[in-house]
Design a protein that fits this description.
By secondary structure, the chain is an alpha+beta fold. It is built from two helices and two strands, in the order E-E-H-H. The protein has a two-stranded antiparallel ribbon with strand order 1-2. It is elongated, with a radius of gyration of 14 Å. 2% of the residues are buried.
Length: 58
């Protein structure tokens, strides 16, 4: 498990600036869920390769 910063799915631009409405939040990612996430966490692949792998995976 590793903590990462991700975009807040509940962010509302109409309430921008409120402490209860942050743009990003902390989330935990299971690194063993995918070989791609494990390679990315270890720095074996770069951001472009990660984005391409996630797009292919979807």
């Amino acid at each position: 498990m590793r903590a990462v910063t991700v975009a807040n799915p509940y962010y509302s631009p109409s309430h921008d600036g409120y402490a209860s409405n942050p743009r990003t939040v902390q989330a935990f990612v299971n690194l063993k869920e995918s070989a791609i996430t494990m390679l990315a966490s270890r720095g074996r692949i770069d951001a472009a390769q990660l984005a391409a792998a996630m797009r292919f995976r979807a």
